[in-house]
Amino acid sequence: MKPHVVVLGGNFAGLGSAQKVRELCGESVRITVIDRKNFLLFVPNVPAEVFEGRDPSKTLAMDIPSTLDEDDIGFIQAEIKAIDPDAKRVDFVPNERPGAAPESLSYDYLVVAVGNRLAYDKIEGFAEHGHTVSDFYYGNKLRHFLAHEYKGGPVAIGSARFHQGDGTKDVKLYGGHAFPSAEAACEGPPVETMLSMATWLGQHGKGGPDKITVFTPAALIAEDAGEEVVGKLLGIAGGMGFNYVNEAKDVTRITKDGVELASGKNIEAELKIVFPDWVPHDFMKGLPISDNEGFVVTDVTMRNPKYPNVFAAGDAAAITVPKLGGIGHAQCEIVAKQIAKD
């Protein structure tokens, strides 16, 4: 039989990995993708739709089964329950309708591309007082708030602290440099959102950048871009009137009146747009392929050192720091080339 490549996750990293494996391995492998939903959520454009007053669910969902079918790739809509690297098996429950019986699927190669949990549930007060732009539900909640409830008060935009695992401690970058650490999972979205929010305020006669405070748990926002680039960004943003708080440490609580930070500082705000910690799914924790937080340990070829038939791509990989789409996209091709080489 043809080797069976099972890809867990059907968003950018999962879909990209499956398509690249098909491209580079041709018909020599059988490929199956498992995801809990049957559509790809185009997250990066959610803020653009929201600030234009449009429902993102109408424009930013792409059907997964029909897309995969073009490359003869199978699809299962299911909740992943467990991975057994020794038995080379994935346990799942089909979730099209409640009450499905547990199932299992064997693999020859496994690509873990399930992304992470966005831990809004760990932020006290978020449900009552917080907003964000990471999916259709939250995007539409913010769209409604802007259209019907927002009174023109101060705006706070920023990130909770990211808890990076120890999965990169043995990874050396080219030149022997140690792998970087990050205090925020991905700070492109807060920077993009603050600029979009300022444009929206101006267009609706509610003020400008001086109403917005952007905050980061780190010493420097978007620290992966480097001090020179970020320094220029902060200089321009400061000149426009944006307020900036660094070394916030974490979000302690969101209240009706603002954001309470672990540093002890409070930011007064009517509108609080927050990006949470990125946490591995529960079924990833405690596995022999995972680090102490639950991210998949790999070398620079995206291959797990203990289980060479297990790969990771995208946000689920420990080596993906910060959690950027461009990094995940590059990893898809690396994974496919490794499987094709085998």
CATH superfamily of the largest domain: FAD/NAD(P)-binding domain
- How many independent structural domains? 2
Order of helices and strands: EHEEHEHEEEEEHHEHEHEEEEEEEH
What is the CA-based Rg, rounded?
A: 21 Å
Chain-averaged pLDDT: 96
Q: So how many helices?
A: 8
**Given the helix and strand composition, which structural class is it?**
alpha/beta
Task: State the name of the first-level CATH class of the largest domain.
Answer: Alpha Beta
Feature tags:
342 residues; alpha/beta; FAD/NAD(P)-binding domain; 2 domains; 4-stranded parallel sheet; SQRD; FAD/NAD-bd_sf
Any overview of this molecule?
The chain has 342 residues and is an alpha/beta fold. The chain contains eight helices and 18 strands. It folds into two domains: 4-116 and 280-341, FAD/NAD(P)-binding domain; 119-275, FAD/NAD(P)-binding domain (3-Layer(bba) Sandwich). The protein has helices at residues 12-25, 46-51, 64-69, 126-129, 136-148, 188-203, 227-240, 325-341, and strands spanning 4-8, 30-35, 39-41, 61-63, 74-84, 89-94, 103-106, 109-112, 117-118, 155-159, 212-215, 243-245, 251-255, 258-261, 266-268, 271-275, 278-279, 310-312. The strands form five sheets. The chain has a seven-stranded mixed sheet. Strands 12-11-10-16 form a four-stranded parallel sheet, covered by helices on one side. The longest helix is centred in the last third of the chain and has 17 residues, at 325-341. The model has no long low-confidence stretch (mean pLDDT 96).
